[in-house]
Specification:
654 residues; alpha+beta; 8-stranded mixed β-sheet; 3-stranded antiparallel β-sheet; binds 1-deoxymannojirimycin
Length: 654
């Protein structure tokens, strides 16, 4: 707000508002209509900052016009602007008492703005099929520069336009959205699968790729949510039919691939950040078991990368290629995390939220605000901050921890942009109260779903999610570790750690060409002064390819290792905790246990120091190098060892 207001978006690196369209169709969301304020205001209500909410609402009432708006995306304007305005209007109506004089004097001005906007969007629907042009000039009418629109864009209009009809008493908006949705649905293939791009003039699909990511995603979401809001079983029938085709054709053991809508045959195997909303939708529809299964898969990818990457492809069983290695602060993964937490109350989902928050703070926060991460390997920031970060990502993250928040405890439906719609007959006359109060919807909307039967499969998925969380934590440590270091630890599962250590004054120095070997820890080294004659050395085999990122990039940017080196086989590096006996004694024990070097993990988070030999009169005869390492890195190293990882270690001199 301090830097971007009242522009539609903030450019977080230049630290100023984005006023001009310079990014092609990506800028179709910019309408010179203070998008950021409108899209983020109900998040302020969720945060309980009602004073700021009131000033935002007052700003909108006094300043928002569409007079300067040019060509905008119909879909984006619908979900962000129209949805935002309607939600603000409904929240004011719901919470009048706490809004003081502003609440008392509010006469529906924001609904009037929503109606104005709806009217300006309507010309887009004036096509032969009623499927809207993807873009509209808010002052001059349709801008059918492209006559092709995605299924998601044409099929994600009904909640907002239907609600606008309910609130304004004018059926024209709902009719338009209904007609567009009907046409898209009508054109599904003989197998019942919709395509992803449709021509607005002849109503025929032009792209036949179908998945749950870009191009189709929220189409599925709005079928089910329209049933919830408008109580019409027609939408439920459509959703059920679409859901079963997804299960039949797209579900690939643990996740969904893309298929050809005519043949039903798989055409692409991978996952997008966008598609990670789906487990949340499955929760809403009552299929918790499959939601956990799908989520466990998303989590495996997130854990290995540290964030939900924009686009990945899978090669073989375990290789993941980051086709688009960015993270633009999208909400979908955290949205599903919230839905699963609400359904299961399992704290694992809060822990995942916490890790996500830490990672966002670490890599995306800067002096101006937050930035999209352009490259998840180099961790570079981009001059981009989409309004959905405020309307969705932050809102879902906050709700994950604020269990008593009104948006958690009362019945609200979240639009695809996470705008809040209170589920009450005061607003939507056709709302089915029994449905809202009942199963399966209750699983997602009730404060806690009690009495849920946990199948063995569900327990297995939770276990897998737990394992991924360990990996996610490890990945975060790897990502945040300083790189000007001399010790490198590579794990097949967790990636590569680099950090600095401080050599002791006793024993040998690290040789010029360094030491390469495998880490082990022995109980005797931990518990001096008992002798280490037990020699519990874990002399595991060679470094195994992690097969994760393509390691044709420079070594430092790769996670894991790709080469195996049998010469390392016999060199073992001991890892011991600080404490219990003198440093030099530990080194001696490690040497006697067969170690070629010793890493001692500090037991306080502090600056490192040079370890000295306690026996200055008769120095301990140590022949191996001994190095003190930071607690943060050492704890990770020990944890990996406890988990049975084979750790390849390289120690280089300063
Ligand atoms: C949001 O604008 C909505 O969630 C939409 O349905 C799809 N993607 C973005 C956020 O990723």
């Amino acid at each position: 707000m301090a830097h971007g207001f009242p522009a539609d978006e903030l450019m977080p690196l230049q630290c100023k508002g984005r006023h001009h369209k310079t990014r092609g169709t990506m800028d179709d969301i910019l309408g010179n209509f203070s998008l950021m304020v409108v899209d983020s205001l109900d998040t302020l209500a969720v945060l309980g900052d009602w004073d700021e909410f009131i000033s935002g609402a007052e700003y909108i009432i006094n300043n928002l016009t569409f007079a300067e708006s040019g060509i905008v995306s119909v879909f984006e304007t619908n979900i962000r602007m129209l949805g935002g305005l309607l939600s603000i209007h409904l929240l004011i109506s719901e919470h009048r008492e706490r809004l003081g004089t502003f609440g008392e004097s509010y006469t529906g001005q924001i609904l009037d703005l929503a109606i104005q906007l709806g009217n300006r969007m309507l010309p887009a629907f004036g096509t032969p099929t009623g499927i809207p042009c993807p873009r509209v000039h808010l002052n001059e009418g349709p801008s059918c520069d492209s006559n092709q629109i995605t299924t998601a864009e044409a099929g994600t209009l009904l909640l907002e336009m239907g609600l606008l009809s309910e609130l304004s008493g004018n059926p024209v908006y709902k009719n338009a959205a209904d007609r567009a949705l009907g046409k898209v649905w009508e054109q599904r293939s003989a197998k019942g699968i919709v395509g992803s791009v449709i021509n607005v003039n002849d109503g025929k699909y032009k792209e036949f790729i179908n998945g749950i990511g870009a191009g189709v995603d929220s189409f599925y979401e709005y079928l089910f949510k329209s049933y919830i809001l408008f109580g019409d079983s027609l939408y439920l029938d459509m959703f059920n039919s679409a859901y079963s085709t997804l299960m039949k054709y797209n579900k690939n053991s643990d996740y969904f691939h893309s298929v050809h809508s005519l043949s039903g045959k798989p055409i692409r195997n991978g996952i997008q950040g966008l598609s990670m909303f789906f487990p949340g939708l499955e929760v809403l529809a009552g299929d918790i078991e499959d939601a956990l299964r799908s989520y466990a898969f998303c989590m495996r990818v997130v854990a290995r990368v540290g964030f939900p990457p924009e686009v990945t492809h899978f090669e073989g069983d375990s290789k993941i290629r980051l086709t688009n290695p960015s993270y633009v602060l999208r909400p979908e993964f955290i949205e599903s995390t919230l839905y699963l937490y609400r359904a299961t109350r399992n704290p694992i989902f809060q822990l995942i939220g916490k890790q996500t928050l830490i990672a966002i703070r670490e890599f995306s926060k800067n002096s101006c605000g937050f930035s999209a991460i352009g490259n998840l390997i180099a961790m570079t920031q981009e001059d981009r901050l989409d309004s959905f970060f405020f309307s969705e990502t932050l809102k879902y993250l906050y709700l994950l921890f604020d269990e008593n928040n009104f948006a958690n405890t009362e019945h609200y439906l979240f639009t695809t942009e996470a705008h809040l719609i209170p589920l009450k007959n005061d607003y939507v006359s056709s709302l089915d109260k029994d449905l809202v109060a009942g199963v399966p919807l209750c699983r997602a909307l009730c404060p806690a779903f009690r009495g849920m039967h946990f199948s063995q499969k569900m327990a297995r998925y939770i276990k897998s999610i737990e394992e991924s969380l360990i990996q996610m934590e490890a990945r975060l440590v790897v990502m945040t570790t300083e790189y000007n270091s001399e010790i490198t630890v590579s794990s097949q599962r967790f990636g590569k750690l680099k950090f600095r250590g401080e050599s002791g004054l006793f024993g040998n120095k690290v040789p010029e060409n360094g030491i390469k070997g495998f880490a082990f820890s022995t109980i005797p080294v931990d518990a001096c002064p008992s002798s280490s004659k037990g020699k519990t050395i874990l002399n595991k085999s060679v470094c195994v390819s992690l097969d994760f990122f393509d390691c044709d990039q420079s070594d430092d940017e790769c996670v894991g290792c790709n080469e195996s080196s049998s010469s390392e086989q016999n060199i073992s590096i001991a890892v011991a905790k600080r404490g219990d006996c003198f440093f030099a004694q530990k080194a001696l024990e490690a040497e006697e246990a067969g170690a070629s070097a010793l890493l001692i993990v500090d037991n306080v988070h502090d600056l490192l120091f040079t370890m000295s030999d306690a026996r200055t009169d008769k120095p301990t005869a140590v022949n191996i190098p001994s190095i003190l390492i930071p607690k943060k890195n050492g704890d990770t190293l020990l944890r990996w060892l406890e988990l049975g990882e084979t750790l390849s270690v390289t120690i280089r001199p300063h």
